[in-house]
Predict the 3D structure of the following.
Amino acid sequence: METMQLVIFRLNEQEYGVDIFNVNEIVPYMNPTKIPNSPVYVEGVLNLRGHVIPIINLKRKFNLEDSATNDNTRIIVTDTGRKNMVGFVVDEASEVTTVEKDSIEPISEVVSNISRKYISGVGNMANGRMFILLNFNELYKEE
């Protein structure tokens, strides 16, 4: 069986996953510098070890209830493949896990086309928990 490693994170009470090969690092939340006239889901930019990176709030991007940040809030830093990094704000990044690729099923046709381009599938972990597998590269493409 072919497997993949995922970083599992939370937005509100839902668990999401992203391929670990798309993640550069996970850092504690820091207040970004605001950028005037940016979309509501762009919190601003951070200088992370000499790289200025945009910070995207995934709850706002997905139109989810946006709660305040706390000690568990993290920024998942990814490389977009164009030598640009971007950070995604999540409630917490809880674990790294290995799943079988066969356990990830495509998303239903009921979900709108806009949402489906961000979602690679829905999967089950060995302990029975479900997660939504996101494609961070697609999330950043339209920025």
About this structure: The first strand starts at residue 3 and ends at 11. The two ends are 36 Å apart (CA to CA).
